[in-house]
Structures are given as structure tokens and as C-alpha cells.
Amino acid sequence: MAALHWTRQQSLVAFSLYSRLSFGRFHSRNPEIIQYANLIGRTPSALAMKLSNIASLDPAITSTGRSGLSGVSSSDKAMWQEMQQDWAAFAIAMAQAEKELSAEKETAMKDGSEKLTTKLAEVKIRIGQQFFRSAVLSAYNQRCCISGLANPKLLVASHIVPWCADEHNRLNPHNGLALSALHDKAFDLGLITVDEDYRVVVSSQNSDAKDPFFTAAIASFHGKPIALPEKFYPAAQFLAFHRENVFQQV
């Protein structure tokens, strides 16, 4: 019996799940995979296999020797390219697919017309920000890439190229770093940056040897490598932009 064709909605949900789960959680026993398999009308094993197929398209996965599965379809390849070309539109499409499939499950839903019509711009921004945060933090396994802090309430999906400077890459996870709230602020102000070898660089302009907290919390990381993500590596061109346009040079 031939395998059932994956609809675009189902595939969008799978891509959404791929963006926020670590590679090691792509298995049929994962409660989140079970939940979303039920949502899209697939078995947990089929959804887990779909995620592994998507992983075979991700250079950040394959470059480490992990290959995912080899059964990736031409439609998956096309959707991967669609995602890379316009993260903002793809994030909205993924969120809307989840919303629509959820609505189909909820037969008692009162008004199916309430989707993304009210305050559409604000809703799209919120959805995009949620996608960016979940994609970036999951890539770094919910840890600050500088300090290793793992409290999610104190973590920020920090933009490398500022939100206002590059509209096209606002939701591109390759334009993100998982940082503690403190290091996010320091990065945003240009007190720290990351060099081409993924090492922390601390500006000497605001360094104060008499401030023990600054020394311990920020200056002590100078020259130390950041923890690289499992996927969605920080793009070299974005880091170069930050060093040249945001970082407070010596």
C-alpha cells in the first residue's frame, strides 16, 4: 500500500516542529511528537521520520557526521528552500497551518473566521517573534552560548544584525544567538561581539577593572569560544556586520 501523501499543512507543522526540537528528540516516544502527530493525522513514527528526513537537508546537522534519513522528498527540498529564502513568510505559514489544523480538530469552534484578521500586522510580528525565539533557543539547547546559563526565563534570542537594520533577516535563526539577558544587553550595546572564530571579544572602551561584577560576568569571557548551536549556525556575514557596525571598537 502506497504511503499517504503529506499535505502542505502537515509538512508545515513538521517544519515548525523541526525548528524548535533538538536532533536527539526526533523519536516517536517524544510527547511533543505524539501530540503533533495526532494533530496532523499521522503516526508518531511517521512524524519522527519526517523530521529526520528534514534533518538531512540541514548543513549544520550533516556537517557533524549526522545524516538524518535519506528518504527526503522533492517537496521537502522545495519547502526547505522556501524557508531559507523568506523566514518571515514561512514562520507565518507554519503558525497558520497549526492554527487551521487545530481548528479542524475542534468541531465546536464558534467562529472559524477568527484567524489572522484582527490587528494582522501585530499578530504576524508576535508569531514571528515566537518562532525566532523557539528556533534559536532550541538550537542552543536552551543555554546561553557565552555563560551556559540554562534558565529559560533569563534567556533571550538575540539578533546579531539588529531588528531595525535588516527586515529580510529578522526571523532568520542564523541571525540569532541564545544569550542571557545580561549578555544580550551587552551584545546589543556593542560591549561584546563574536569574532570570525566564534570567540567572545569584549570592548575595552567600557571595561572597568575596579568593577568586579563586570570583570566576572563579562570581561572574563574575552577570548573564550561560544558554544555553537546544533543547527542554525550564526552566519558569518551577520557576525561581521555586528563587529563593523555595532561593536564599540578599541
UniProtKB/TrEMBL annotation:
Residues 144-195 form the HNH nuclease domain. Keywords: Endonuclease, Hydrolase, Nuclease. One of its GO terms (molecular function) is endonuclease activity. The keyword Hydrolase applies. It comes from the Bacteria. This is HNH endonuclease.
